[in-house]
Each structure stands twice: as structure tokens, then as C-alpha cells.
Amino acid sequence: MKKTYNIEVDCANCALLMENATKQTAGVENAVVNFMTQKMTVEFSEGADEKAVMKSVLKACHKVEPDCEIEL
Amino acid sequence: MLIRIVLAAVFTVALNIFPVENQWVKLVLYLGVYVLIGYDILRKAGLGIINGRPSDENFLMTVATAGAFALAIWEKSGDYNEAIAVMLFYQIGEFFQNYAVGRSRKSISALMDIRPDYANVETGGALHWVDPNEVAVGSIIIVQPGEKVPLDGVVEAGNSTLNTSALTGESLPRDVAPGDEIISGCINLSGVLRVRTTKPFGESTVSKVLELVENSTSHKSQSEAFISRFARVYTPAVCFSALALAILPPLFALITGAEAGPAWRTWIYRALTFLVISCPCALVISIPLSFFAAIGGAGRKGVLIKGSNYLETLSKVRTFVFDKTGTLTKGVFEVTAVHHSPLDEARLIELAAIAECSSSHPISRSIQKAYGKPVDRTRVSDIEEIAGEGVKAVVDGIKVVAGNEKLMRSIGVEPLPCHCTGTLVHIALDGEYAGHILITDVVKPTSRRAIDLLRKAGITRTVMLTGDSAKVAGHVAVELGVDRVCSGLLPADKVEKVEELMADETPGKLAFVGDGINDAPVLTRADIGIAMGAMGSDAAIEAADVVLMDDDPMGIVTALRISRKCLGIVWQNIIFALGIKAACLILGALGLAGMWAAIFADVGVMVLAVLNAMRCLRVSNK
User: Fold this and answer.
1) Which of B215, B220, B221, B617 has the highest number of chain A CBs within 10 A, making it the mutation to test binding with A?
2) Which of B217, B229, B287 to mutate to test the interface with A (most CBs of A within 10 A)?
3) What residue of B is the nearest CA neighbor of A61?
4) A39 in reach of chain B (CB within 8 A)
5) β-bridge mates for residue B462, sequence order
6) Nearest-by-Cβ selection for B285 from A12, A32, A39
7) Residue B495: pLDDT above 80?
8) Which pLDDT tens digit goes with each residue over B231-280?
9) A12 touching B, CB under 8 A?
10) DSSP sequence for B55-112
11) Is it the case that residue B72 has pLDDT exceeding 70?
12) Exposed, middle or buried by CB within 10 Å (0-12, 13-18, 19+), for A66?
């Protein structure tokens, strides 16, 4: 299942870091962060609870870029 | 943020005009300003260390400015200005960067602002505003003048003109009448239209186009990938060289016994300068921005590019391969001449059109189109269609036979050959030869110019592929000026031909241009597949890498120009930013450039690179 979220991130480099952090989160099959459109598309693994996964994604992202925001 | 910058600047100036005598009070005041301007940077640097990711730009700035502060305290020089100035300029740079990026993002999004907000659905005689997502296929929607067409559909009633420029870049409005298909994203200009929807919102043209543009930057190009890899290596590398710069030369001096004392200060200062220069922002920001701006600018011209990587490949194309029918030619057969007719040309076409009135073959349809009037079926009788040969019928009491040479010979009439290329429909009236009608696939008016311009732009090879006979193909090739023709090809042969062309030694990439409907395999096989006239064709949007919304070949030239310009700007930025930084690093290491030059190397270069990147948005029309 794929879902797109609006995000807020300041620099392209940070967006890349967020993308990598999201990809490594459990329950995420694949993720693409689009800096220019400020959007993040997350592909969840089979049977993953998207809400719980997104919570850990947000946590992982805050770790690499304290100022980023994901609209859940 | 702006307030903080102004306040910090004012305080710094004030502290310099009214010097405070007491050392400690002075230190506290300056520290206060420093924290005011840089607290968020300090916080992020701290968090970075805690989270095990210490080498980002916040960390670099913190070390550099804190180091400058420490040096000033240690030396009791009381000159804290430098540390504050660096932080101040860094913040100004960040502020400007956010502003510029935000602005450009907005202007690019505005280009693609074709998303309709609502649809007018008619239920029980009244109009309701409904989210286009919720409109079922087959519903009747009303599009009023000035409104965007929300969903793809067929006009049921009403006449109007549509502005398709948001989708195609074509400024000429298009007329629509009942029975015509219309595409979402167009703007209705004059009359009210009743439209029966044919697709759900998610599959309608406007959604497809938006999705495509929004996802396009996810396909990263090589130069983007290069830069992010580069940034990953570059920052730590600069940090370690800074460390080496701070320690090694003084240590060397110490060992060799030269004077040591003040040298420490100089080298540490130089190392700090190094750190300020090291931030790779200019590149990391400007390169995706260039690509995104170019894709946005191209979108406005009706050229959809599916990703930065395709933009990059397109700029390297040296061979263009075209499909003939529907790409370079209109793909619609038209009557272009009538030869050897003893009758009036119009009369001959009239007789032929009436005789062929029951046939739906493209050739007979083109004759009927040339006739231009509805056919009065009472004038025709005894219609006999001979498949693959033609038609026999009686029109107004005249025995009309219309068809190919074989049919003529079978009724004992010797047809006259034609010096022109195209399809011939010979006509015999009451057993007498009455000339032939020449039907050809007409070359698009801009094809020739597009090919000339491509050649001028340095395209070394243009090849035309077609399923037509060599004679017809050769004629069109001469007319258009393409270098090579491969004729008589079946769709599968086209793939083979393209592979052959890709395998030979000619340098550069190969682009295939097709109409996207039956060329899907070739479009996918070529380095770059360009589909034309994709308005409403899902297959084309799926298979191609670059999609031209209208079917004007000049779009190919536009696409090539945009890609070249964008890649030019990207390389300018890479070379410019790296060049300035390298120069400042060397000057900094030699002690010729201080923190002031360093902060220019960082912020100034970034600003210039962003401004340069924004040039990608503008696409010349020439």
C-alpha cells in the first residue's frame, strides 16, 4: 500500500537524509521524499500498521533533521 | 528569523560604536548576541552529536564560530566581531535560501496549477458542486464558461471553445461541439457544455499529468546522485583537512624547532576558515532546483518530462528516430489531387464519394471528407464492394467503378499511372476511364522546420521508420530532409531497427519519437521515448519518458532545448561552486583569505547558484 504525506523540510540534503531514515524504518517497503513538492510517498510492507509505522518514521526523521515535519 | 537577524546586526554595530570597557561585561554582551543569532544552529549541532551524526553544516558552523570566540578569549583581544559576523551571514544566507527555494517552488507549482477543485453535477434539474473524485463515470456534468473541465468526457450538448494551453502550451483555442471528446484541465472559454464523463478523476488526464510532474523529481539524474554522494564524502573530508591544518603545520614547526608560540593561533584560525567554506549547500540545493525548474518550465510548454534522469539523457541525444505516420505526417489521409479527369474535379469527387458512401475504409472516408457534404443515399444503388479492390455502384444512373488498378483491369479499363506518390483511386464512368484521385498522408507543416532545427542543434542522425512502401517513404524523406529511411517495417521490425541503430558506433544517445499508440515497445526500448499527441492517451503516457501533449513536432525541439539548457546550468553551478570553494580553501590555507571571504564562498555562491538555477524556468519560444 502506498500513501503520500505532506512534509516540511528546509534543505535538499535533509530531505535525502529523511528518505534514507524512512527506508530503514521497520514496516516500510520503500520511500521517496520529494523536496521540491514537499511530499513523502511511503510504500508500506504487507500487513504493516501504517499509523504505528508512520510514528516511528517521524521519530527517525526527527533524529536526522530536528526541524522536519510530517503531516500525518 | 528576519527580526533576529536585524536585532543581532543592530546590537553588534551598537557594541562597536559604544565600546564597553569591562572585559567580562563585554564578553557577556557579545555572547548574548551570539546566542540570539545562532541558538537554533547550536541546538541542532548538539542534537546532531547526540544522534550520532556530527558532520552536518550546523556542526561545522558551531565549531567554526565557537572556535573563533575561544581564540578571541584566549588571546584577550576582545575582538568577538568575527564569530558573530560569520554566524550572522550564515543565517542571512539560510534565510535567503529558504526564501528563494520557497518562491521558486511556488512559482513552479503555479505553472502546474490545473487541478480542478469541483465539478458541477446535475441532479434533478439543479446543479451541485461535487468533489471531482466523487463523480461516477457516465455522469452528466456542466462546465460553465471560465471553469476548468474537471473530468475527461464527451460533449453531449453545447458548443464552446476550450483553452488547452495549461496542458499543451498551445495558445490557439480549440472548438468543441457535441460528440467531441474533451480533456480535463482545459478551460472552457465561451459556451456552457454538458459533458458525459468517461473516466474517474484518478484516471483523467489532469490527474495523470499532475502525478507525472510531481513524481518526476523522484527519478534522480546521475548528476543529482553524484552530488549527494559527493556531499557525503566532501564534508567529512574538509573536516579532517581542517583538523590536519590546525595541528600539523604548528606541530611540524615545533619539531623542527622553529618559533612555535603564535603559529598555533594562525593555523587554528585558518582551519576554522576552512570549516566555514566547507558547507556544500550551493550544490545540494541548486541542482535539484535546476531540474525541477526545467521540468516545470517544460510542463508549461506542453512537454512533460518524467524525471530528471530523462532530462539528462535527452541532452545527450545525437540520433533521432521518427515514426512516420502520425508523427511527422498527420496520419490522416487527404485528397491532394485529381488527375486526367474529363469532368470537373468536384464532380468526380462527388461521384466517388457517393459510390463509396457505405464504406468505412480510411480511403473512402477521406474522399467523403473532400466532398464535404452529406451524402444523399437515394442517388446511389447497386453498391458492390470488392474487398481490397474498390467499389462498383450506380450513381445518378451512371455506372461508377472506383478502386485500384486491379479493379480497373478486371472491367477492361487501362488505368493511367501517376508521377506522384500516394494511394490512387482510379475511377471509371460507364466503362470509360475518368482519371484518378490522389490520396496522400499529409506531412505536418512544422515537421521540416523541426528537423532542420534539430540538425542545427547538433543532432547528427535523423532516421525515419515506416511500414509504408519504399516509394512513399522515400518521397516523404526527401520532403522532410531526414538522413535515412527504413521502410516496409512491421512493428516488431521497428524494435530491431532501433536496437541496430543503438548498437552501431555513432556516439550519443538515441531518442525515438512516436505517436505512442502502437509504438509502445519501441518507446520503451530506445534510450529516450518521446510520445506525441498524448492528449488523452494513457498508453502513451505510460510507455514514454517524455510526453508531448500536442502533436506538433516542434515540441521535440523545445524538449531538446530545455534539456540542454538545464544541463548547461547544472554544470555551470557545479564548476562555479566547486571552483570558488576550492580557490577559497587554498587561499584560506595560505592565510590569504579570512572568515569574510569564507562566508562569501559559502553564502554568496549558494545565492548565485540558486538564481542561476531559476533560469531553467524560462523557456525561449524561438
Assistant:
1) B215
2) B217
3) B51
4) yes
5) B320
6) A12
7) yes
8) 777 777 877 888 888 888 777 777 776 655 556 777 888 888 877 777 66
9) yes
10) -SHHHHHHHHHHHHHHHHHHHT----HHHHHHHHHHHHHHHHHHHHHHHHHHHHHHHT
11) yes
12) middle
B140-143 and B193-197 beta bridge pairing? antiparallel
Query: Which residue of chain A is at minimal alpha-carbon distance from B112?
Result: A37
Three cell numbers written together for B533 = 499527441
CA distance B413 to A71: 79
Helix pair angle (B308-315, B222-256), 10° resolution: 90
User: What integer is the mean pLDDT of B41-62?
Assistant: 75
A59–chain B Cβ distance below 8 A for any pair:
no
Rounded Cα gap, residues B202 and A8, in angstroms? 25
**CB–CB contact A11 B285 (8 Å):** yes
Within B76-221, residue ranges assigned H as helices are 81-111, 165-168, 205-216
Residues of chain A in contact with residue B284, where contact means CB-CB under 8 angstroms, are 11-13
Residue ranges of chain A with per-residue pLDDT less than 50? none
Q: pTM, whole model, 2 decimals?
A: 0.74
% pLDDT > 70, chain B: 89
Region class of B321: left (phi > 0), else alpha (psi between -120 and 50), else beta: beta
Three cell numbers, residue B246 = 590546525
Nearest to A66 among B47, B231, B280 (CB): B47
Asked whether the beta carbons of B143 and B157 are under 8 A apart, the reply is: no
Collect all residues of chain B within an 8 Å Cβ-Cβ radius of residue A2: none
Using the structure block, give the residue that is written with the C-alpha cell 519560444.
Answer: B621
Residues B471, B423: Cα–Cα separation, whole Å: 11
For the sheet with B432-443, list strands across it. B329-339, B432-443, B423-429, B398-403, B390-395, B380-386
Residues of B designated catalytic: 323
Contact criterion met (CB < 8 Å) for B284 and A35: no
Q: How far is CA A46 from CA A4, A27, A57, A60, in A?
A: 17, 8, 17, 21
Cβ–Cβ of A34/B218 closer than 8 Å? yes
| pLDDT value, residue B565 | 92
